[in-house]
Hints:
It contains 8 helices and 15 strands. It is an alpha/beta fold.
Amino acid sequence: MTERRLRLAVPNKGRLQQPTLDLLRNAGLMFERTERALTIPVRNVDLDLLFVRTEDIPEMVADGVAEMGITGIDLLAEADLGLSITTELGFGRCRLVAAVAEDDPAQTIDDFAGRRVATAHPNVTSAFFAGKGLEVTIVPLRGSVEVAPRLGLADAIVDLVSSGSTMLINGLRPVVTLLESQAVLVAGIEAENGRARDVEQVTTMLKAVVAARRKRYVLMNAPAAAVAEIEEIIPGLDSPTVVPLAHEGMVAVHSVVDAADVWDVLPRLEIAGATGILVLPIEQLIP
Ligand code: AMP
């Protein structure tokens, strides 16, 4: 019997979908997305993409319907299937917070005792309050959690926030964070059914994109005498590359820096004597 192609479960809609497709394309996977198709073959890798609801992805991977999946940490925690996170993907960042109406007297989590708490994350929420020894009544909702207090459906909510502006608009005030979430790659028990190497290959390629997004490639010209000082500013992955230029005494220096540090590093390089400084994106990086 021929083995079926490896499957990666990805969101078929919602806010994690586009960044997931961007990640896969950046990793070099070639595929044509046709709306409605459940599975789409990747042309250049022995891999099928399985398009399903973000919240169903943990189940799909746990059941072995797909060897891997991309979903949110919050959904993984809610499903509670014992899946482990292979890689944090750096997008879909949000927090699961417990919140009350702005004019509510609650200041700490203890003030939630005895309340009705609306949430789309009933398992995480019950486990959280049980862990604190607090009794609450969970009001499970599929969506629109933030309007529950106004509708008189609950006295408090547990919901996802990123900027916090939706809560503010709805007159809600966060009191405590239950968990920090972002999109992650998860893998099932394929190590036991002999697909560990294929899974590892996909994981490596996705990790390479995530790592690359956090870095920039910088190139500059400088007097050879400035190299020591420049190396101190931009030590690079191992050490910067230094190549001689046609003009005696001048070199080109290439290095990799954290994207977050570029702002701080460029003026210092200029002071150290660098000229013609270029900052380039990196597509993939395997350290
Ligand atoms: P969806 O409901 O399909 O749009 O996907 C929701 C998932 O996106 C959540 O489970 C989170 O993992 C993630 N997410 C990231 N930021 C937010 C946010 N501000 N609100 C809701 N979900 C978010």
